[in-house]
Amino acid sequence: MPLLVVGSVAIDNVQTPVERRDNVLGGSATHFSIAASFFTGVRLVGVVGDDWPEQHTRLLNGRGIDTSGLQIVPGGKTFTWTGRYEPNMNDRETLDVQLNVFGEFDPKLPESYRQAKYVFLANGVPAVQSKVLEQVPGRRLVVADTMDLWINIMRDDLDALLKNLDGLVLNDSEAKLLTGTENLVAAGRAVQRMGPKFVVIKKGEHGAMFFGEHETYVMPAYPTDRVVDPTGAGDTFAGGMMGYLTEQDSFDAETLKTAMAYGIVAASFNVEGFGTERMQQISREDIEKRMSEYRKMLSF
Amino acid sequence: MPLLVVGSVAIDNVQTPVERRDNVLGGSATHFSIAASFFTGVRLVGVVGDDWPEQHTRLLNGRGIDTSGLQIVPGGKTFTWTGRYEPNMNDRETLDVQLNVFGEFDPKLPESYRQAKYVFLANGVPAVQSKVLEQVPGRRLVVADTMDLWINIMRDDLDALLKNLDGLVLNDSEAKLLTGTENLVAAGRAVQRMGPKFVVIKKGEHGAMFFGEHETYVMPAYPTDRVVDPTGAGDTFAGGMMGYLTEQDSFDAETLKTAMAYGIVAASFNVEGFGTERMQQISREDIEKRMSEYRKMLSF
């Protein structure tokens, strides 16, 4: 049961209080795919320029990630993001964004992708996210991410998208912005009234909150003191969550909760290295081991 | 098995985005005692002026809180705090502090208090906190709170106190200030190396972290959208935690974890009303009910 993801594929330049790293493999769909690949086959839709290192494609393919939906634009340049993290490692400043070929991204799904049942629309232009949906008529579970930029400048398109989602994943400041509500519990419920059947609010180092039809809960982040680079933690969370749901081929309340926990555990590994490097070092067994520590941590 | 608490007893003026309330019963020892009184008898040590409303003493006594250690200074005025909360209800500004009789607080424990085994030193001058310890020779578990002011101006006295504590409870910004460390996991462990056998970092709306000899864990706050006034939430947390430990007459790892959860649940009620008013409306049964919801929330 493969999982479809559409989103950015990028090259990042990351500056943390400890170190600066250039030309790091990044992008929302990349982080998502790698996390999901521990659980299921992934079909990736994205766009890069012909500066895209072939080794990255090999890395993705080696993990069971189908890149036949990754367009390579001849003469184009790959999306790059340059950012700097504050000493608290939770706040960051975007120093430079070069959308390049991603600015004209018009995803066309290969025929083999169109039967996907599980779909994740990683952060992107809401109208483009909606266009993807039309290309997967057999979709059973559609979850999307969004960001402050679209909330501010493309609100109508975003509102239209929200009505067609099963789930929305967004971070705490975005939930407040979208609803004009400071209390996160109230904000989560308000987002839910905009359309999605469930809403996940990501709180960075403080974990994530879930708002479903019948329940509201909070799960803390797995505590780690080895925070090297938080880039992609939110997408890794979503990848772990969606990967597990796809593997289980279920999204009932209980499975969703376990999936949230897998997402949190996956994200806790991601922050321990630059870009995707830590995720490349670990195995499903490492995830399971930390998952049982996490479960034990929350039992009393 | 009564629990001893030493700390401030105050009258607060609280301004929230919703409402302003003057002359609200407050103070660290007050919030602590009321929370602890759901679990155990409490012996309170504090000081007030003769402006102190007799009804507050009756309220405390009616809950099994012994106030024979509450000095009333003739001609003196009770400590008052005036503060305003930001719209996020997590950040606040102190508009005015009148220490009054609390500025000269020199706690003398009544003879009947000196056999206490469970002791909580609510936020106060570290040298005064240390002086209390000398008066409870049979103490088995001593936990203290502190604040940024003492970290900044009375560091030596605080360092001396830390060496004599079983546990320290402090908030996230204070833990960072005390250790010069931005990562909370690293900060918690660094505080532990300063003396206390265990450390609890309170994260407000994000819950609390525990650092013990053999374990580190995080527990989220119980999610509520009815945040009316967060004043005293940290002391209520400590009161719930210490109250449960005293009731159980145990502080092994498992009991400590359950006690953390009781503290979090108690605090979640406290924020639902001004001052102590919500805590006065609820029963142990309400706490147990929310406790099982909280336990269920964290099971997967």
UniProtKB/TrEMBL annotation, chains A, B:
Gene3D superfamilies: 3.40.1190.20. One of its GO terms (molecular function) is kinase activity. Its EC number is 2.7.1.-. It holds the Pfam family PfkB. It comes from Lacipirellula limnantheis. Keywords: Kinase, Transferase. One of its GO terms (cellular component) is cytosol. This is Putative sugar kinase YdjH. Residues 17-277 form the Carbohydrate kinase PfkB domain. The lineage of its organism: Bacteria, Pseudomonadati, Planctomycetota, Planctomycetia, Pirellulales. It comes from the Bacteria.
